[in-house]
Amino acid sequence: MSFNPNELILEKIRAVEEYDPATNELVGRYTQIESPSLKTAATGTAVTDAMGAEITTFYNAQTGTFDFTNSLFSLDLAASQFGTEKEISADMKRPVSETVKVDGSHQAVLKYIPVGPEGAEITTVKVINYDNTFGKTYRISAAGADGAPADNESFVLDAENKTLTFPSDVTGRVFVKYDAVTGNTVKITKSSDSIPKVRSLLVHALFHDPCDTNMVYAGVISIPRAQIDPSAVELTLTSEGKHAASYKLQKSYCDENAKLFDIIVSDYSVA
Known about the structure:
Helix content is about 5%, strand content about 50%. The chain has one helix at about 75-80, and strands at about 10-20, 25-30, 35-50, 55-70, 85-90, 95-100, 105-110, 115, 125-130, 135-140, 155-160, 165, 175-180, 185, 200-210, 210-230, 245-250, 260-270. The strands form three sheets. Strands 1, 2, 3, 4, 15, 16, 17 and 18 form an eight-stranded antiparallel β-sheet that branches. Strands 6, 7, 8, 9, 10, 11, 12 and 13 form an eight-stranded mixed β-sheet that branches. A hairpin with a 4-residue loop joins strand 11 (about 155-160) and strand 12 (about 165). It is elongated.
């Protein structure tokens, strides 16, 4: 008997994959899919008679959307929404904020080597008072003959050794902000003029035969052209937050009969 399914049980969407349509290179893969939804729409033009009674309606300008929520925050998905690419480097600098204890030698040792203009890698440091408020601000200066700060308003920085030296009356803790190279680092940037690129999507699904639920079939929704919607991106910055995305399905403008998507189910059982 030929494989000709009609009603199937959709178990779940296993993954959503983004590809560069020009090179077919994978640029993003999302595997924690919640609330996936595939919708289509069309513009209807009603044809009426002289009395205004509707004779028929012609539908054109067909469009589609594909929405889902990823259970986990995805840097690849955010990069796609921001219209940018993920940067990966072991030499990338990033901002660091530290609260550091001043020792008996009136010195504070940083976690990382600060980077920046030589001799001014860190320009100011604030003392933290006993009640956690900010106190006096100290500014960088050249060291005196004895290696101490030039005056009671400044500090000396030995960037290579990650050491700050303060006047003798500074005790407790200080707050330090600086730039440093901290190891393997990933960065995505949202620019005001960036536009998400058109991608192709593969939406992988698992189906069950309703007459034999032990039979599990592999399916895929193939979307040749989709552009992620950047108009209302919201990143919920909590541990319970989800990462939602919405794609607008597009046909090639120069192809009159271009498809929006294919739904493909194979008789190959993955059970």
